[in-house]
Write a structure and sequence with these properties.
Oligomer: homodimer
Strand content of chain A: under 5%
Number of strands of chain A: 0
DNA sequence: ATGTGACTTGGAGTCCGTT
DNA sequence: AAACGGACTCCAAGTCACA
């Protein structure tokens, strides 16, 4: 299933941005008003996250939500 | 609820891109492997769409999924 | 060709833990 | 601090009939 790769890609991007900000999953969860264990599973690409939660995490990381869907290097898709 | 505005914004963006391509909701649904009425409700901002479906629609419209989260004018968020 | 209300069900999302 | 599991609630997914 190629679909799962999208989720893994997204999760990696979140983790990357979170770590560069020196935040724990717990702290990010608070900021995004989401659960601690949920953030973890999202970063591992186990969850098919919905749009409002994408937006919440983006807000917590202080980036545009569109930026969470870009790969690290900014290449296509 | 400010959260719903995100969904409306997203739906408008999809509709915009679909219409500039001269596609019907029905045709877009086929291309994205989704249901006709589902596409409709997404465009109206009634659905909190998840990441894999965002990706499917993006593929069908031949754009990067990150582009579906940008406003028409390309401004912040 | 699209809007809409209603419906079932699988999974999103939470909460309790242990490792 | 993070991964992971079980049990739970509730909402997104997906479909339909009809306007």
């Amino acid at each position: 299933m190629d679909e799962r790769a999208v989720l893994v890609e997204f999760g990696c991007r979140v983790r990357e941005l979170r770590e560069t900000r020196g935040l724990s999953q717990e702290r990010l969860a608070e900021l995004a008003h989401l659960h601690r264990t949920y953030i973890g599973s999202v970063e591992r690409g186990e969850r098919n996250i919905s749009l409002v939660n994408i937006h919440r995490i983006a807000r917590a990381l202080d980036v545009a939500s569109s930026e969470l869907l870009m790969k690290s290097d900014g290449s296509k898709n």
